[in-house]
Structure formats: structure tokens, C-alpha cells
């Protein structure tokens, strides 16, 4: 920073204070490019390379190429992006900090300065993924769950407290404060940043990357941000740019306004469905049009949050008047708000209804007035269902074959189960019974319109005498304490509580599988009768096996609809035409009778929510949790690893690391560890949810003296590679074609033909010196930005993944771990090539001369000794990725670079 390329360095005066900024119009004046109609998301990237130009890592050519971004055909050149800050949550954040601590140890062993391993830009970690819904349906649930959370996770939390003292530029928001993305939206994000550089106060757009795919939520307030793997985030922290090819930008035009009865959730699910059909994987989506003036920042954030579900890198909403209004509502300083407005207008980044439309790669359009009440499921977030079609959709899914996305229960349509309660009461359950109803997740709990809507619906329902069936596990997990404040002030917490929706915690609960156990008698009835039960949640993910192992049909819905389905107790109901229940006089009560109007909701928002609520909750956010404050904190710049710990272990990624860079070599004689189908998600690959006692991870923990009731979750043990590698590819719903007839983490160990857990087979292959490959279909790695999906793959000995296509983050994570991603060339896949997965594979053409996106030859030797070859595309998309691959990963590259710099 500080170079004055193209005379772009200028002064901006706001409120009597002068700032240095890097004016984009200078590029136009200097004849570099016409930037006037660039998408605003591209302008933000352009400002970043212009401001941080140094002639080495970021060159003049980078600036020129991005300034000349071609909407129709973006150049294949790289963008070196250095974000303003990094955002972590604790599930993905703990392994990031573990890796940094291990890098310090490796640096020390190589004779370098361990303090060199330190975040160079601000890093915020919000602990929000560890609370589970153990207790529910009572006012004591919150305190019980928080106490349980600390009991389970104290060792991890002590480690994070150490990180606060050991690393500069690192802050941690304690447990119980809120969900990472909502805390970011309501408090951490500034929209524009200011920083002192060489004695000057420089102002520039706020931007970030985060180790959670739903980091994209921040795009709702005009901050550029998206999810990356933990490995990439670590590299960014250590001063490395994030490299990616110039993106296509899809313009999404919004017109009109939402009709009565439609919510922001309905809009978000509609957008997800439209963009999935459009095909936007790996692209930017930017929203524009006059319809933006009719949706709030909270509504925008709901849509931006679900970018991973529609496959885009992000869904961006530019700064406009609504952004300024939101900053005021959430208690930001007036001086900051004035700076945001002045800076955005000076840079041509402030949206108005009458501004010329940017030029996009492609566009699509939605009239907000056409949005209807919508849900998604039962297995994927992009599978949109109108509320009016819900009953027939569920019944069709019930009978449809599993191969077509259904449940294959046509011959068991009338099956029932009886729940026998300890007090002698009984409930009869049918297929579709709602056993989990959760107002949860970052997507919706940040939005006052749907949260107030849920509270008003609950109030009307209670007044009508409606109740929730006993077998429904209800929970309310607000995204921040502000939500509880405004629900309480509006008198809506009490009616929610009467329907069982008591506050259970402030964190990412049911949506990530922290739904906790079902009541024993309910679980028993489901298991003994193999009943297909359902969950309805206000989340963003409903993949198989994610929400709860006993719940196979999972539906995403707005918070008001979550309350409605909790009352109905089943998804096998037409809520448009069938009654929710009966009032105290025996009269039918329909959904329309308790659904609040848009004006009712807005009246409560106007009356109740004010900036002081946000200021009060966030002024002590870093030290408000007394349990956190009292933790015993380790000392020292090097972490003292405890060999007996089952939570935190030094990972083996840097074992035997030398300063010399190894050669790239062919992969010879590889066996197939897993042969998988289409849409295999990181939920299938990465360890997540509960740990089964009989699983390799469960067996390992028991060998260390950990009892099954103390297992906690895979997510909480991400700092221990021994647990995580044993849980990789171990999802209960994964189907491996080389272990036919099995479900779960099994494979065939071909030297003996024995079917065994994937981990056990991988260790046998490792002992044999046999490299491994994974074969997969389309969209491999769709889902959360889970670094352990790549780390676990690497630790199991997988050298390459051959797939039809990859999800953006997972492909990048594989490269970051030194695992080679290969794609079948167009028109080919494992099936057309006749692959069975029982063959031996050799990948030829890998050398130090490897080029981005070149083709290599895969030689396949069948069991009968015959062989054939096919070509595959190397998905190393840039020169820097080739460098990462040769070094064995991003972190090894960074470590070697640091050592070279120290010796220079």
C-alpha cells in the first residue's frame, strides 16, 4: 500500500477529517479502461489490487487486466485478492489455529522465527457452532445447554484463549453471544475500513473471506465476502493473496415488491431455485434493479446467505440508502455512516434506482410480486416446493424410488408407530410426523421480519388454544441476543414458549446437526418401526444425515412456517386448505387465521427495534461470558501440546518437511478407495454430527478412555486429526460403489476382497505403500467449506480425485492439501468409460513442467490384466496452484517462502 499507480491516490474529506483513498476514476482518466459500467463487485476487487499494488505480488498487469474485465468473456488471468479481514467460526476456526500453532513449531524446528507465523490482518473468531440442543421446551434449557457446552468443550476454549494471547490481530467472541454471520452483520462489519498506513489514514471497502460457506451473508450489507477453506484462510492471514480466475458476474434484476403473506425466506428459496437452474457455480451474482429499494438489508442478507445453496461464489447487494438505514438501526457511529456514504459515492459504488445498469456476463429477472410461500426439501435446499403443493410433494417423495430422490416406501404407505410416554400417555405417529421443529441458523434468525412474524403467529395460535404435539422437539436459537431483546419487548417470547419454542442457545444448532437427541421414547418408536419422520427448520441446509440420523425428510421453511408445522405435527398436510388444529370450542383453525399481515409485522418492528438494543448487546461482546473469562489460559508463543488430549493434537502436515521443494511425479499403481455418484457433498465426505461408538473414531476415543456419552461431536474434535481422519467418508448415508450393498463409510480392500471401514482399508493400503484415488460424479464436494473434507482425504492417502465436476471451495481445498483434482473430459464419466473401481490406476504426465488445466493420461488396468487409457483435465487452475501442489499444499509453500525470506 502506498504506491501511486496511475495517480489514483487522492484525498477524501468527510466530517472535517481527511482520508487517503485510491480513486477508480483515475483509471479512466489515465486511459486504462472504461470502468463506468463495471459491476460493483468487480469495482471492489479492482480497488483492492489498485490500492495494494506493489509491483511484485500484485503487478500493474493485474490492475490493467481487471480494469478491462470483459463481461462476455472474462480473461483467464488471475486476480490476487487480499481481503481486509478474516472471519472464523469455532468448528472451522479451531483447526485453523491448530495449523498456525503447528506451523510455529515447524518454523522453530527449521531454525526460523516462530513469531513470523502470525496473522498480518485482523482475524475475528466467533464461537457459535458448539452448543447443542440437549434441553428444550423449558425456560431452563438455555442455561443447561450453555453449561453442557462448556463441560464438553473447555479444552478447546482454553486453546482459543491461548490463541488470543499468543497471536496479534486475533480476537475471539465467546460462546453464547450469537451466530458468526449475524454478529458480523450487526457488529463486526464496517462496510468501509480505515487503517493507518505509513502515517496516512487510508479508507477502502470492507471485505473478508471466512471459513464458513455462509460468510456470503455479509454481501447483504454491501461488504464483499465469501467462504474459503481453512487452508486458504490461513494463507491469507499470513500475507498471501487469494488467487482466483477473473469471475463471470451474473446480474439478477429485482422488480416490484413482495406480496402479502410472502416472506424473505420464500424469496431466498425462490432465488436459490432460479439460480441453481441457471447454473452459477463459481460465479459472482450481483443483484440490481429498482426492486432492491423494496427489500431491507435483513432480507438481502437472507438471500446472500444462501449463495452456497445456489452455487455462486457470492450474491452481492451494493451499498445504497437501505445500507445506511441498517447501519443506523444497528447502532453504528454516525461518523462511520457518513464515511460509508461519501466513500461509496466517490467510488461509483453507491446504488440508486436511476443509475445505469452495470454490464453483466448474463442476467435473469424476478418480479418480487410473484413470490409465493415456499419450502425446500426433503433432501436438498434447491428443491423448491410451494406451500400449496407440500402435501402432494411429500406423498410423492414417500413413494418415489431412492434413485430418483425419494424414499422408496410405496409398499409401507400406512405404517404407524406408537410413542409411549413414561406417564402413560401415548401418541400415534405416521410417516411425515414432525419430530424436530427448529427456528435456527444464520439465514433467518438475523431477520426481524420473519422472527417477529413467527412470534405473532405463535401469539395468535396460543390465543386460539392451539398446542404443539408432545413428540415435536421444538427449539428457538436466536442468531444474536438482540433477537431475544426485541421478541421479549414485543411480548412474543411468552407465546413462543407456550408452544415449546424456548431459547435453547445462541449458536448454529439444528442446521448443522447439533439438534441433540430426540426424547428416548420418540427415538425408540421411530427405530423400532422404521418410520419416516421429518424436521422443519429455518435453516439453509437439509442434506441427508445432516439434521439428525433418525430424521430422513428435512424441510427448510420460514420461522412462521416452522411454528405452523410444529402445531400441525406433520408435513403430510395441506396447510392452505386443511386446518392446523381446533380451538377450545372445537372449531377448525386454519393457517390464514393465525398468519400475521405484513403491516402487523412492520408495526412491531417500527415500535420495538432501536439502535440502543444493538449498542447494549455488543458493547461487552468480548468479555460478557463469565465462564469464558474464568478459563485457565496457557502461556507462551509455542503451544504445549498434550499427547493425551483427545481434542487438540499437533497435526502431521509438516512432519519431515525440508526446505527443498520436491518434484512432481506420476501417481503409479493407485487403488480406488471410494467410487461415488453425483452431488456428493462435504457432509458426506467430512466428519460431522455425532460419533457412533462402533465407528473407527468411536473405537479410537474409547481406547483413550473416553466414554460414548463424552464423545461430543465430530465438529468439536476438529482439532484432533486422529478423530477426523477416522471419520472421513464415514457419513451414514454415503454409498460407495466399490462396497455394493453397504451404506456408510465402507470400502473393499482389494488385495483380500474384504469389505471394511474406509479408514481401516486406507491404513492397510498405507502400510502396503499403495496410493489411493477417489472417483466421483458431478458437483463433487458441494456443501459447506469444510477443510477436513480435504484434510481427511489427504491423511487417508488419497493422491487424486477424478470427478465430472467440482464444487469451487472443495476443489481449492484439495489443491491446498496437495491432493490432485482431475476432471473427466467433456462427454466422459466413470460410467461411459466402463470403470468399476476395481481396477489399478496410473496417472501419467505429472512432472515439474505441469501447466494449469493441462490434460494427463490415466492408465487403467482391469482385474483380468487388460488395460486402456483416458484423458483427464488437471484442475490446477493457475500457476500458483501448480506451485501449491508441488510443495504439497499451501501451508508448506508459505512456510518455505518464510524460510527463504529469512535467509535472504
From TrEMBL:
Annotated InterPro entries: AcnA_IRP_Swivel (IPR044137), Acnase/IPM_dHydase_lsu_aba_1/3 (IPR015931), Acoase/IPM_deHydtase_lsu_aba (IPR001030), Aconitase/3IPM_dehydase_swvl (IPR015928), Aconitase/IRP2 (IPR006249), Aconitase_4Fe-4S_BS (IPR018136), Aconitase_4Fe-4S_dom (IPR036008), AconitaseA/IPMdHydase_ssu_swvl (IPR000573)
Enzyme Commission code(s) on record: 4.2.1.3
Domain Aconitase A/isopropylmalate dehydratase small subunit swivel: 699-824
Pathway entry: Carbohydrate metabolism; tricarboxylic acid cycle; isocitrate from oxaloacetate: step 2/2
Entry-linked SUPFAM superfamilies: Aconitase iron-sulfur domain (SSF53732), LeuD/IlvD-like (SSF52016)
Subunit structure: Monomer.
Full protein name: Aconitate hydratase
Organism: Alicyclobacillus acidocaldarius (strain Tc-4-1)
Gene name of the record: acnA
